[in-house]
Amino acid sequence: MSIRLIFTNNSVKNTTLGCDSLGIHYEVSKSKDDGIVSVARWDWHTDQSVTIGQFRLPLFSKDQIKLARDTKLYTQYSSRSFEADNGAVYRWKLKREGINANHVLYYDDEMDGSDPLVKYCRHYRTSNEPSYLEILDSSVMDSLDLIVVTFLIMEKKKRDRDKSSGGN
After folding, report:
1. How far is the first Cα of the chain from the last one, in angstroms, to the nearest whole number?
2. Which of 53, 137, 145, 152: CA 20 to 30 A from 69?
């Protein structure tokens, strides 16, 4: 059975996403001062919000990415892969569904013909349904913080490319 992390809106800079039934809650906010996007997870053990990552993706200079964990992150356009604390290497890939392309996460070495681990289902303004990240394989739950942050980075880059090329 899959788990859906529901977005409150379609923004990747100012939104919340979570699964209330599992107590998963992330808040994404962009600072007006310096443009840094912060991602925080609600920790129900401590009843506090914990920052798990920050990023700033300027158009004409190097990306600035800070993660709470010691993680190898490869976010160049051609790579889109990252290594989790458990040693697993994941890769985001754009999959075309109809006229839209959405991010799908795979194990890096199993992309061809394997089942996806996580997929993004984006619903646009014309739909009453919220967008969501769907966790298809529960084995990735230990890396969920990293998956959420890297998804937001990859989706922000995709939207910036779409905007600059006149896409949606």
Report:
1. 31
2. 137
